[in-house]
Amino acid sequence: MRKITFSLVCVVLLSLLTGSANGQSNLTYEDLDQYIQAAADSFDMPGLAVGIIQNDEVVFLKGYGYSNTETKTMVDENTLFGIASCSKAFTAACLAMLVDEGKIDWDDKVIDHYPSFELYDPFITRELMVKDLLCHRAGYQTFDGDLLWYGTNYSREEVIQRFRHRENPYSLRERYGYSNIMFIAAGELIKSVTGMTWDEFVIERIFTPLGMSNSTTTNAGFREGMNIAWPHLDGSPMSFINYDNSGPAASINTSASELLRWTQLMLNKGQWNDSILFSESQYYKLVEPHTITRAARGERIDGTHFYTYGLGWALKDYDGRKIIDHGGGLPGFHSKVVFVPEDDFGYVILANEISLLVPALEHDLLDFLLNDSLGWVERYLPYKDMQKKSETEKWEKLEKERIPNTTPSLPLEAYTGLYEDEMYGQAEVVLSDHKLNIRLLPSGNLFDADMEHWHLDTFRIKVKDPFLPAGFITFSLGEDGKVTGFRINIENPDFHFYKLDFKKI
Hints:
Blueprint: H1 6-21, H2 29-42, E1 47-54, E2 57-68, E3 73-74, E4 81-82, H3 88-100, H4 110-113, H5 122-127, H6 156-163, H7 180-194, H8 198-210, E5 232-233, E6 236-237, H9 247-250, E7 253-254, H10 256-267, E8 271-272, E9 275-276, H11 280-286, E10 291-294, E11 307-309, E12 314-318, E13 321-330, E14 333-340, E15 345-351, H12 357-371, H13 376-380, H14 386-401, E16 417-421, E17 425-432, E18 435-440, E19 449-455, E20 458-461, E21 471-477, E22 483-489, E23 502-504
Antiparallel strand pairs: 1-2, 1-15, 2-3, 4-7, 5-6, 8-9, 10-11, 11-12, 12-13, 13-14, 14-15, 16-17, 16-23, 17-18, 18-19, 19-20, 20-21, 21-22, 22-23
């Protein structure tokens, strides 16, 4: 993409806003197109696709930048992106269909339809309702257990089985805790009730009637030459990670053009042309508040009076309207689906790199459609490199706290062997070329790392997954002086390495 500076973005933005304020013609979609292009370049976004639908008509649909920065293949409206957690609303709609058909009820106990389902807490296992699977109130912290599916060879069934070892920090419906695992369980419930896999059900009951013929529930068959967006990190393509075992929570791939069809279905409350995919009463069940997610601050510039979660959808108010949306993020992909029933419009944003550009454009499109204004890119851009700066400052602090001139308690050979965490599975530590190496076996080589002695019995590691920062492994010793296990500390907002407790076996 041609580079456009932040200063030019501000000039374009100022001219647009000044024209509107002086009573000149309102902002046009051509203005929006130029604004998005400038914003994408300022954020160094590899590729992006944006679509808007209003009154059942696609009014804006365009791709920007590259689907792969190495091949210089351009993004268009039909380029497939991983939509990550925007997949959750599809799963919720599938269950709504089953409620319509009388095969389940939202208040049914999960174990009545999925008998092998089991969590750590017997009370929660017994009392968890079908709707609880979809609104993040099952008693867990946000992202609990996600290491079970991320890059592992575990099936969905085994992910759920192993998750029973994760202790519930909270009681049922006590508080909000975003759970991908519960959505995976919802997919397994669909399979138990219908005999169809979640993938088969989504394709037959949603993709096919909506004409989403290019959309998929897996990236397993992706290859160069297809119209797909490759995941990127710092502007460079990454390898695909297979997310099939997280399917009902995160594995759908679709394009801006086809995702707008899904958005239109929601705006039409489950009706598509002359067909009813799910009833209007179920639509309202999906988009009514079920769980309070966080405190609202109405006095902020983007102020809202409530943040809640429905069934597969997030809910808030803005400018007097009910905003229904969901975001998605996985290494190399960032997505957003938003719709506003009172004004009969919706929009989608798909990006092939995680970036603050996505929330900036989310706010911009909302203000463009409601208030004929733009300006959020200017607010977000100063924070673009904040994470990198924070990571640098963290390691500078750790270096100061490092204990100098220490050696491991034991010869390196003593740390080798097989270890196991009850929930996650096994890990192996080996010695090669006078250096220790760790591999978490369920994840293939994704979490391979050489160990560099840090201090005492702590070693610094940088796993092969480029998405994750460097971290530490600390070994523990028993009273006899022998190694008993280790803990991992890789600070990141997505995966709870610190909860794993590997024991030597």
